[in-house]
Each structure stands twice: as structure tokens, then as C-alpha cells.
Specification:
Length: about 110
């Protein structure tokens, strides 16, 4: 490119950029210290297919398939019980009846 240097038009080399680079698969161009460089792609959960019963979560800087934590959505409770989480596990517990309350008016 032509630039004015000390009031004179001068041809100067183009600064290298990622437009001039072709990176191999699994890498991408990134300018490092003013120079284009092919660096490994950052892994993400978009690149991972997890088996059934697991979901992808980023662990530190890597995607990992982690076992799903059980929840009340995974449990069918029999009649007369309801699901409650007990120490991070779903449990079928009896539906508690409201306590009987006796109101005694004016007899204290």
C-alpha cells in the first residue's frame, strides 16, 4: 500500500492479517502479537453430542458429558404421596394432612 512517510508517498508492505491465512481444520486464525496465527478452536458444548441421560457442561475449559441429576420430573409417585427432593434425591413421601386445630373461644 502507499503511505505518506516524511511527506513522501512510499510503498510499504501490507500488514499481514487473517485474510491472508488458510488454517487447517480444527483451527482458526487469530492475530497474536500483530501476526496472524492458526490456533486450535475453542471447544464448546456445540461440538459435543452426549449420550442419553447426560448433558454437556463446560468443566474448566473443556466440554464434558455429565450425568443428569435426578429430579421429581423423573419419578412417578403412587397415589397419596408426592415427590420431594431429599438430600438431592427425589423421594415419594406421604401427603401430609393439615394438623387439626381446635379453637376454644373464651375458655382460657
Amino acid at each position: 500500500t502507499c503511505q505518506t512517510v516524511d511527506d513522501w508517498p512510499t510503498c510499504v508492505p501490507n500488514k499481514p492479517s487473517c485474510n491472508d491465512m488458510r488454517c487447517p481444520a480444527g483451527t482458526m486464525c487469530q492475530v497474536v502479537e500483530d501476526w496472524p496465527k492458526c490456533v486450535p478452536n475453542k471447544a464448546s458444548c456445540n461440538d459435543v453430542r452426549c449420550p442419553s441421560g447426560t448433558t454437556c457442561q463446560m468443566v474448566e475449559t473443556s466440554p464434558r458429558c455429565v450425568t443428569n441429576k435426578p429430579s421429581c420430573n423423573d419419578l412417578r409417585c403412587p397415589s397419596g404421596t408426592t415427590c420431594k427432593m431429599v438430600e438431592s434425591s427425589p423421594r415419594c413421601l406421604p401427603i401430609s394432612q393439615p394438623p387439626l386445630v381446635c379453637h376454644v373461644l373464651g375458655r382460657w
